[in-house]
């Protein structure tokens, strides 16, 4: 068989090597010509787990959408929806873990698609998957940046009730945070990979402090009936559709689930560490997010006040009601803001690696520039800058129309799951053949569980697209840009990795 890399160079790989790919650190990536030797392999197993969890930060994601989620199905959607979406994302994580155990490359799902697809469809499908994945990460970057701005404004409102925030206040904070963390990614991250470890410890410490304080201080507590059985439908949709559309809020807990995949080529023993990181992110995420949601629901005393809060962050009002202390609420908001810094820092790092991988495969008009790794900083500086420009433009959209901006960031979850559906569907197409998933891989699902997981990923992608209030205008424009890029450049020059299997 032959392997084709980003420059179209064919390399000879023995059939026996395919079955043992997962047993060697980065032999897969190097054998496919992916240039993994351009970056140092300095991220250990705990750091990649920390980075992945810092991005998902499921309990903070739950905090950000808790009040909105209650209006879209009540506590029933918040709690039972969290269980349902966790099942979906466990299946998704297992699918990604299986593939990353065999093909640990920065391209992640779009490289999996390129390798699994029939030769005549490989180029188009992998390009589409890559562009969708890249846009989902831009959407996530914008969402977290604006959330951090909202935390800062919320603290100001707590102590200055007469302060009326304007759109340009959020805009300036959004742009400042994005720029500062861009500098962090260029000059600091590679010199201090332990930053992600600090973020992980801060996240868990803050979780326990906030949860214990709110539960112990709140009085009176909400009833069991309110917490576990309240149904609220303020959407205008029938109840069934309300529940399905409301799942977007618990699904936000797992935004950025594929983070570890895109840093595989910088990890030590990625065939083992990346699958563990992906699976652990879901497990730790569910335990923390579900516990946090239950605690906050028992702690709030006036739900109408939560929805009408002047801070712009309903969870801040819940903190205030539970603790009855501005100081404690401010401390909790600052903790959440610091977590947001670590989250946005990790997002910029991860999304730049995906952009770098696409450029390495010649997906863009300026790929020869974007694919460069700085010789002394050891980071893809131009990929970081390219992503920053797009994120900056998203901030400008916020200034022009918050509705358009919300639509932009809202499609991130839909596009993320769609990008996972590509390789999952192709695994099903190939009948989960051991040719692609060798039995010697460090992570391999039992046959029945594997089929179930792959099917669930595909079905959930369809449901997410239909029911998550998919906006029309912005995705159409983004899609048009991708199609234009395909005809101008990628259709002729883009080359995803391939393994052509011949006779053994």
From TrEMBL:
GO CC terms, sorted: membrane
Transmembrane segments: 78-103, 124-147, 167-188, 200-218, 238-257, 277-297, 327-347, 381-400, 407-429, 449-472
Gene Ontology MF terms: transmembrane transporter activity
Compartments where located: Membrane
Pfam families xref list: AA_permease_2 (PF13520)
Keywords: Membrane, Transmembrane, Transmembrane helix, Transport
Topological category with respect to the lipid bilayer: Multi-pass membrane protein
Main localization of the protein described in the UniProt heading: membrane
InterPro entries listed in its UniProt record: AA/rel_permease1
Statement: the UniProt record of this protein carries the keyword Cell inner membrane: no
Protein name, per record: Choline transport protein
Organism in which the protein naturally occurs: Capronia epimyces CBS 606.96
Higher taxonomy: Eukaryota, Fungi, Dikarya, Ascomycota, Pezizomycotina
């Amino acid at each position: 068989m032959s392997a084709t890399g980003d420059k179209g160079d064919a390399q000879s790989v023995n059939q026996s090597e395919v079955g043992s790919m997962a047993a060697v650190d980065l032999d897969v990536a190097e054998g496919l010509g992916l240039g993994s030797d351009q970056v140092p392999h300095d991220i250990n197993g705990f750091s990649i787990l920390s980075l992945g969890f810092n991005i998902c930060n499921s309990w903070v994601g739950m905090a950000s959408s808790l009040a909105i989620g209650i209006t879209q199905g009540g506590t029933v959607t918040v709690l039972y929806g969290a269980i349902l979406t966790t099942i979906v994302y466990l299946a998704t994580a297992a699918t990604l873990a299986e593939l990353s155990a065999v093909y640990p490359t920065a391209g992640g799902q779009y490289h999996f698609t390129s390798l699994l697809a029939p030769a005549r469809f490989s180029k188009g499908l992998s390009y589409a998957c890559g562009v969708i994945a890249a846009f989902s990460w831009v959407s996530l970057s914008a969402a977290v940046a604006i959330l951090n701005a909202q935390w800062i404004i919320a603290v100001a409102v707590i102590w200055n009730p007469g302060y009326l925030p304007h759109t340009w206040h959020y805009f300036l904070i959004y742009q400042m945070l994005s720029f500062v963390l861009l500098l962090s990614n260029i000059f600091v991250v590679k010199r201090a990979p332990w930053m992600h470890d600090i973020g992980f410890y801060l996240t868990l410490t803050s979780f326990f402090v906030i949860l214990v304080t709110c539960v112990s201080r709140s009085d009176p507590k909400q009833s069991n009936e309110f917490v576990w059985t309240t149904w609220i439908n303020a959407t205008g949709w029938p109840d069934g559709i309300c529940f399905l559309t409301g799942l977007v809020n618990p699904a936000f807990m797992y935004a950025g689930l594929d983070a570890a995949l895109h840093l595989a080529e910088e990890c030590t023993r990625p065939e083992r560490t990346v699958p563990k990181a992906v699976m652990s992110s879901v497990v730790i995420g569910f335990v923390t997010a579900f516990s946090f949601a239950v605690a906050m629901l028992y702690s709030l005393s006036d739900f109408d006040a939560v929805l009408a809060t002047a801070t712009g962050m309903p969870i801040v009002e819940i903190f205030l009601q539970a603790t009855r202390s501005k100081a404690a609420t401010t401390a909790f908001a600052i903790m959440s803001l610091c977590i947001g810094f670590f989250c946005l820092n990790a997002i910029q790092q991860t999304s730049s690696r995906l952009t770098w991988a696409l450029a390495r495969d010649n997906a863009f008009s300026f790929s020869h520039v974007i694919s460069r790794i700085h010789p002394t900083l050891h980071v893809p500086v131009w990929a970081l800058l390219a992503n920053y420009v797009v994120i900056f433009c998203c901030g400008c959209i916020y200034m022009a129309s918050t509705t358009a901006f919300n639509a932009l960031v809202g499609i991130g979850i839909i596009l993320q799951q769609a990008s996972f559906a590509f390789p999952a569907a192709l695994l099903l197409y190939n009948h989960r053949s051991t040719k692609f998933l060798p039995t010697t891989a460090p992570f391999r699902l039992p046959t029945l569980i594997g089929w179930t997981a792959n099917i669930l990923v595909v079905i959930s992608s369809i449901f997410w697209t239909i029911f998550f209030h998919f906006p029309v205008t912005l995705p159409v424009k983004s899609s048009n840009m991708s199609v234009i890029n395909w005809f101008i450049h990628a259709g002729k020059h883009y080359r995803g990795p391939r393994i052509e299997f011949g006779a053994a």
